[in-house]
Amino acid sequence: MSIKLITPILITGSTGFIGSNLVRQLIKKYDDIHIIIRKDSNLWRINDIIGKVNIHYVDLVEKSAVVKAVEKIKPQTIFHLAAYGAYPFQNNVEKIKSVILDGTINLIEACLKNKFKIFINTGSNSEYGFKNSPMKESDILCPNSHYAVMKAATTNYCQFIAASQKLPIVTVRPFHIYGPYEEPSRLIPKLVTKLLDNELPKLVSPNIARDMLYIDDAIDLFCSIASIKVNNGEIFNMGSGSQSTIRMIVDNTIGLIGASIIPKWNSMKPRIWDQYTWVSDMTKVKRILGWQPRYTLSEGLFRTIKWYIDNPEIHQ
After folding, report:
1. Any idea what the Cα angle at residue 176 is, between residues 235 and 137, rounded to 5°?
2. Would you call 252 helix, strand, or coil by DSSP?
3. Tens digit of each residue's pLDDT (9 = 90 or more) over 177-215
4. Alpha-carbon distance 253 to 263, whole Å?
5. For a surface tag, which of 2, 49, 248, 271 has the fewest beta carbons within 10 Å of its beta carbon?
């Protein structure tokens, strides 16, 4: 598939894990890239490339400021990744609602004043809740956290606006994306950094499952969706289509690093979100986009480990 995006391109959540990687990929090919960030945003993921994008200091919860920024940018391609509440330490319910739901409404209403080619809203696999089979875009939602509830509400809002106003607004639901610049408290960063010192973090049951997708594949899917004509209100899963147990992930990482350490399973109590079945159904994505991931779990982990070794000063 030939991927060509229409500029100007607007990205929210550019200081986050997925957003920063998206920016890094896009600046290699496009000049007219704009990011919306708050004045107090932590820029550690994009400090070295900040001069290659157009910056707009705007808080998405401030409607008038969002309208003003969007009117100035007149974006044709919008990647909306700004969020709050995905991590356990982000537990302010009012902020979760204001950033995810109110912020999205403000952004979409601002974009409605200008014609655009595509608006991609970033949802979450947690909108599905707990399932015993591969999660399909058509599944009934059963969100399992405040964060998931607001993401599900935002997805519904996007679908409503897309259908009622016949607009190209779609939602992607990422599963477990991993790679460079990931939040340091997450599984892969903790696992890799500990193993590089021949240690291991505390681990849950080895049978807990994840649908793992390397970040470059996630960015490729984002851009693939943005480059074609899609049905208004469409939803796409963003996963590998297969699940990996924590045992597979840990064993792979130990082997790639060459560490000599034996995992102590169940040294950590299971978290509320831990599941034994956690896998995306990618049938729809393959049918409409002809897309599939390029990297296996081992290949993605290898690239991630190499990044940590090559960039010890960047990750926290």
Report:
1. 20
2. helix
3. 999 999 999 999 999 999 999 999 999 999 999 999 999
4. 12
5. 2
Residue 159 Cα distances to 110, 174, 235, 304, angstroms? 17, 17, 9, 35
Token pair recorded at residue 195:
């193993």
CB-based contact 18:241 (threshold 8 Å) = no
Q: How far apart are CA 266 and CA 243, in angstroms?
A: 20
Q: Is there a contact between 228 and 287 (Cβ–Cβ < 8 Å)? A: no
DSSP tag of 270: P
By the 10 Å C-beta count (0-12 exposed, 13-18 middle, 19+ buried), 177 is classed as buried
Instruction: Please indicate, yes or no, whether the overall pTM of this predicted structure exceeds 0.90.
Output: yes
The dihedral sign for the CA sequence 305, 175, 297, 260: positive
> How many C-beta atoms lie closer than 10 Å to residue 81's C-beta?
21
Classify the phi-psi angles of 266: left when phi > 0, otherwise alpha if psi is within -120 to 50, otherwise beta: left
